[in-house]
Amino acid sequence: DAIGMSGLLVKSTVIMKENLEEMNSRGLAERWPVLLGGAALTRSFVENDLSELYEGEVRYAKDAFEGLRLMDAIMGAKRGEVQPVDAEAEAKRAERKARRERSLRIAEARKAKQTEEDPQPVPARSDVATDVAVPTPPFWDTRVVKGVPVAEYSALLDERATFLGQWGLKGTRGDGGPSYEELVETEGRPRLRYWMDELTTKGILQHAAVVYGYFPCVAEGDDLVVLDAPSPDAGERCRFTFPRQPRDRRLCLADFYRPRERAEAEGVVDVVPFQLVTMGDPIADFANELFEKNAYRDYLEVHGLGVQLTEALAEYWHRRVRSELRWSSGAAVSDEDPDDITEFFKLGYRGARFSLGYGACPELEDRAKIVDLLQPDRIGVKLSEEFQLHPEQSTDAIVTHHPQAKYFNT
Ligand code: B12
């Protein structure tokens, strides 16, 4: 009746475009309306760019509920029912279109003005401090840790992201229905306790594993250079080139590591920790079993919980890394950690953890270098040709101890 495509990764939006072109060329567009959704898409991209390209109807769904409403409308139309015109939705669409056209015009005018005027000299690098002390790691190279205790990493579960983002617990405001806080007490926490018990009893959460390591490094312009040994004159092991913001602070991820000149002057290089965590296959297998049994609510909850536990494991290991990095006084980087866990999710600690594919370091291809450094096949994790880790509930990261490091887009 209709074709649905979901895009979690930016790469998948390119494939969607190709699919729509292919459907045009095979003359299928007339027959098949297309519904698109997923984190990598925006309404504007679908309603403007893709709908111009596709010869049939293509619509965006922000969530599963909008998807259902669209399907109802499509099926109604197929049955020959006259569809009531949703005047409000039509007006909103027209307004979005006008807004987009206006901002494109403004951007073009600004660009034209810029090329007319003398180009402003842009600073070569950001204002990020280069005189930051370097903590000492407990070892150079990598370690494998299998069977991380559930109680330890699950303590860093982001409840809000689980309940609101994954389980869709949305309270009502003002019209007498339960608030989000009430739903957390009556549904969220009881279901969470139930699943944690169930998954622990079944032994599903015992497969959490980590491979991590500390590597000597220096920054060279926009590059993070990983060295063979902790000395400024050591050979180069590999190099990551990160994009720099074209305006604003002109930040680049490489700015959060000690520049080569400074390392040479002081005779001390920086340290870059890399980490890769996985929940293993069992949680995804269990979620898929529930899906096969048509137990959708259970599936949604288990999948969502698995996803957030992966994040919790990454957060937990990052804390471990901070506790292992020591200053010459013997104090640990983690001594600056906030007491309140919710502050963790706002990066309230010293340093930051950057995952490839996010704004500051968008190149997924660079994951191959992390895999080369960490050898995650030792914990059963493989990188696919599309640069995705399998099992799916896995994530990798580049860590920096720099106190000014916060997330940014380029
Ligand atoms: C949780 C999460 C994870 C989890 C789990 C991912 C998973 N596969 O389930 C973990 C921690 C494992 C993870 C890892 C990674 N992630 Co991640 N992740 C997210 C996050 C925060 C939420 C995704 C999610 O579960 N949403 C909840 C679900 C229910 O919502 P949803 O997927 O959007 O789907 C709903 C709607 O969109 C809609 N919908 C979706 N599809 C369709 C289709 C149709 C037809 C319809 C009608 C509706 C519809 O309905 C759904 C239900 O309402 C997103 C950012 C975000 N805010 O979405 C990043 C995000 C997807 N991740 C991203 C990245 C980069 C990664 C990593 C590569 C990072 C890394 N270097 O390790 C890895 C890759 C994993 C791997 N195996 O290699 C990027 C991808 C962007 C890109 N560059 O392509 C995102 C977009 C973050 C970002 N802003 O950059 N990730």
Automatic annotation (TrEMBL):
InterPro entries with a match to the protein in the record: Cobalamin-bd, Cobalamin-bd_sf, Met_Synthase/Corrinoid, VitB12-dep_Met_synth_activ_dom, VitB12-dep_Met_synth_activ_sf
A single GO molecular function term of this UniProt record = methionine synthase activity
Q: Name one GO cellular component term.
A: cytosol
Q: What is this protein called?
A: 5-methyltetrahydrofolate--homocysteine methyltransferase
The chain positions of domain B12-binding read 1-85
Q: Where is this region: Disordered?
A: 84-103
Name its species: Amycolatopsis marina
The UniProt entry, under Pfam families, shows: Met_synt_B12
Q: Which domain of life is it from?
A: Bacteria
Q: Which UniProt keywords apply?
A: Cobalt, Metal-binding, Methyltransferase, Transferase
Which residue ranges does the record assign to the AdoMet activation domain?
111-410
Q: Name one GO biological process term.
A: homocysteine metabolic process
**TM ranges:** none
Against PANTHER family, the record matches this protein to: METHIONINE SYNTHASE
